[in-house]
Amino acid sequence: MQLIMNVFKFFIDAGPTVMLPVIITIIGLIFGLKITKAFKSGLTLGIGFAGIKLILDFMTTNVGPAAKAMVERTGVQLDALDVGWGSIAAITWASPIIALLIFAILIVNIVLLILKKTHTLDVDIWNYHHMAIVGVMVYFVTHNIFLGVGSAIVMAVVTFKMSDWSQPLVEDFFGIPGVSLPTVSALSSLVIAWPLNWVLDKIPFMRKAKFTIKDAQKYLGFFGDSTIMGLVIGLAIGFLAGYDIKSVLQLGVSMAAVLVLIPKMTSLFMEGLMPISDAAQSWSQKKFKGRKLFIGLDAAVVVGNQDVITTALIIIPLTIAMALVLPGNRVLPFADLAVVPFRVAMVVALTRGNLLKNIVIGLVVTVSLLWCGSATAPILTEIAKSVGIDLGTNAMLISSFASTAMIQSYLVFIAFTYKPLIGIPILLAVFAASWYYFDKVKKVNFKVTQND
């Protein structure tokens, strides 16, 4: 036992760039990959983490002092920099308990499938990080491995059931049959959107609004490009910080570079996990032959929809404006502005493209992202430091529109960290009531269940 503990400690002390290849190689071998392919996948992830770490260091070095100066000159207290979902994913995969959380989520999916309590076969292992980060943060706060794993399990159950319930939206609006989207970054908005859409439907003006996509597109275009957004945001921060023109231009180009480089480093994560995901899909299909299943894919398959893109391009500038005036907000929106389409995709499907309702619901979702992101930024920052990311002495806090900024993740996180003996039963009771409503009252996917 002591030998095992010493080996475990060695890899933890060596840091995530060493630990990640080992963990991913082991997962790959379990799913039947050859040792060479499994190791290459793990090494690619390690390289991706190293790249993201360098970009984060670069970003905080440049933005940290500028944001601090901006706060001092304007009084706007935005001291939590949005570093993007890719950075949060890297932090999640670098956690020493990530292997335990990933296996727990996978086992939950298999058990629910065996019991016929879900129809979603989630082969998108890359996006497990959205569920796992809650377990990482709960464990970091409570130092209780059971609460950490338990929170990830609850996230998994909620996510797979929400995927089932929202699958008709994916099929009817986006025209993709047999597919569900267990991507928390897209699903979580429905926690707000479902009840709010019901309320808005009671208002005739909102229900019958005729504001169209073509009306909105007249005012968008060039400024919808993420590189241009990075440039503009950098220039604005530099100007508000009181920098001279040369420094303002340098900051603008640096921020544009960050928005170009982060997706490229993140793509290494996806490249490394693709063989693992493919092997997991093959393994699952062998085990569940003859079942009517929805293949759980990344929400990226729907964010290119014209209604989604148009809604997102309207929400993005409003998000920046809202961040400046929203009481209690500490988050400076930046890297995750590029993935706002993920946050509004299922909202658009729910409203069936009603652009006015999309904007209203989208802004309410944005408020929740800013508030929840502000509340959990200090914890996220400490976790980043614990996995070896040096944020520097002038650095701000870090946040994102991912992790526990998403309302679904935040509610589970709070239930498991703030008086869990009270919070967990309340959370489970609300979820049980939702399960009864969608499965027994609305009978979502009732025909699929009958055909199993």
Number of helices: 19
According to DSSP, the number of beta strands is: 6
The assigned structural class equals mainly alpha
Oligomer: single chain
Strands of the widest sheet, in order across it, are 5-1-6
Q: What's the average pLDDT? A: 81
Uncertain runs with pLDDT below 50, 5 residues or more? Answer: none
Largest sheet: 3 strands, parallel
Estimate the global geometry from the Cα principal axes.
globular
Radius of gyration from the CA trace?
A: 22 Å
Helix percent reads over 70%
The helix/strand order is HHHEHHEHHEHHHHHHEHEHHEHHH
Strand content: under 5%
Textual characterization of the structure:
The structure is a single chain. This protein has 452 residues and is mainly α. Helices cover 72% and strands 4% of the residues. The chain has 19 helices and six strands. The protein has a three-stranded parallel sheet. Helix 3 (35-74) packs parallel to helix 12 (226-241). The mean pLDDT is 81.
Short description:
It contains 19 helices and 6 strands.
Which features characterize this protein?
three-stranded parallel beta sheet; 4% strand; 19 helices; mainly alpha; 452 residues
Secondary structure: elements and pairs:
Elements: H1 2-14, H2 16-30, H3 35-74, E1 80-82, H4 85-93, H5 98-114, E2 120-122, H6 129-142, H7 145-173, E3 179-180, H8 184-187, H9 189-200, H10 204-207, H11 213-217, H12 226-241, H13 245-287, E4 294-296, H14 306-325, E5 331-332, H15 340-351, H16 355-386, E6 397-399, H17 407-417, H18 420-441, H19 446-451
Parallel strand pairs: 1-5, 1-6, 2-4, 3-4
Helix pairs in contact: 2-3, 3-4, 3-12, 3-13, 4-6, 5-6, 5-7, 6-7, 6-17, 7-17, 9-15, 9-16, 12-13, 14-15, 14-16, 15-16, 17-18
